[in-house]
Write a structure and sequence with these properties.
Helix content: 25-40%
Radius of gyration: 23 Å
CATH topology of the largest domain: Dna Topoisomerase Vi A Subunit, Chain: A, domain 2
Shape: globular
Distance between the termini: 68 Å
Largest sheet: 6 strands, antiparallel
CATH architecture of the largest domain: 3-Layer(aba) Sandwich
Order of helices and strands: HEEEEHHEEHHEEEHEEHEHEHEHHH
């Protein structure tokens, strides 16, 4: 296409922007989802909706909501119209970031069709709970549910089957904010081969590369911290990367005021919510992404964030590994507390940088072995 052909075609301009950003564009689609373009959002699944015709992008996870021309300007420091030599469309390019009201509950665009039952009423659910080290009573108390089969659809376009998400034999943790269901975490209990077989038997299109053990529905939002409205903002908050580690902490009463981020690096809105607490203790995963995410948060919320690493034991990356029985002697969170784990909390940013440096030098071949207050040896 010639450069001057872009002048009246927003779709082609949108495609050109995405091409320059290195985004793969599906054929014959004007609307599709990609991983978020927000550089501060560590997106593990396609959470951003792209509309080629309007030239707009919106992430349902972090709230990033911009014209693609704005994304291009922020990334390259110049206008796409100038680069294409077709004149700047002032009404279409915004150099300033769009202001987002983080106090508002995230917008969603999905509906849920199906039913969830008590986890103790299904053998798959019981088996999953046992494998994670959770009692059935604990699962009931924390609203961990089970679904044999259910579907989510795009609320604004419910007949568009390309936007349907199918869930089969999953453990489900609903995610609410202000009494509104904004998402849920679905954990497959059957494995990839069973997932493929189900799609084949039911004639549903699938891409086996897109199989994930943990899923969130399209057009939902995890741009929150779990149970935010039930947390006590006058007390210190323990946070983890994922729900399983958070639930592991909650097996002990002193971690009642705990939450999770659903990914390791917090979004701008999550930082806004975390800032409402007097102190944050990030119970990090024992790997480079987790440690770097904690450093990011410590730099964002100066003098408010401390960190606590899991016991440095063979095969232990996170707290739930303990409950799963991966250590020969430490079996519960209470065991860790009895061994003095809580005294290892640190707010020393230089110490954290040292752990990150050590992790990078070992190249992930070994778990971090630290001396002093972060090591539990027995």
């Amino acid at each position: 296409m010639r450069l001057n052909d872009f002048s009246e075609d927003k779709t082609e301009i949108s495609k050109e922007i995405l091409n320059r950003l290195g985004v793969k564009i599906p054929s014959n689609k004007n609307k599709f989802n990609i991983k978020c373009l927000n550089p501060e959002h560590d997106d593990h699944s396609p959470s951003m909706n792209i509309n080629l015709e309007s030239g707009w992008c919106k992430c349902y996870a972090c709230g990033y909501n911009h014209a693609l021309t704005t994304v291009y300007y922020e990334r390259f420091g110049t206008s796409i119209y100038k680069d294409l030599n077709i004149g700047v469309k002032r009404t279409y390019v915004s150099k300033a970031p769009v202001s987002i009201d983080f106090s508002k509950t995230p917008e969603i665009d999905f509906t849920f069709e199906g039913s969830l039952t008590s986890i103790k009423n299904n053998p798959n659910g019981v088996k999953w709970a046992q494998s994670r080290g959770f009692t059935l009573d604990f699962c009931e108390k924390n609203n961990i549910r089970y679904g044999d089969f259910f579907i989510t659809k795009q609320k604004s376009d419910p007949l568009n089957k390309k936007e349907w998400n199918y869930f089969n034999k999953c453990v489900v943790i609903p995610i609410f904010e202000n009494s509104k269901l904004i998402s849920f975490e679905a954990r497959d209990t059957q494995g990839k081969e069973a997932w493929i077989k189900w799609h084949q038997e039911h004639g549903v299109e699938y891409d086996e590369k897109k199989y994930k053990k943990v899923l969130y529905p399209s057009h939902s939002s995890i741009n929150t911290i779990y149970d935010f409205n039930k947390l006590d903002t006058s007390k210190s908050l323990y946070i983890t990367e994922g729900l399983m580690d958070m639930f592991s902490l909650r097996t002990e009463p002193e971690f009642k005021n705990s939450s999770c981020l659903f990914h390791c690096t917090p979004t701008e809105r999550q930082i806004y919510l975390l800032n409402k607490f007097p102190q944050i203790i990030y119970v990090v995963d024992n790997d480079s992404p987790g440690l770097k995410a904690c450093l990011f948060l410590m730099e964002k919320l100066r003098d408010k964030v401390s960190f606590l690493v899991p016991p440095c034991r063979p095969g232990i990356k996170d707290i739930n590994d303990i409950l799963q029985g991966k250590d020969i002697s430490i079996k519960t969170v209470k065991d860790m507390i009895d061994l003095g784990w809580m005294q290892r909390i640190s707010n020393d940013i230089d110490e954290l940088k040292g752990l990150i440096d050590l992790k990078s030098k070992t190249s992930g071949r070994h778990k971090i072995q630290t001396t002093g207050r972060h090591r539990i040896t027995n």
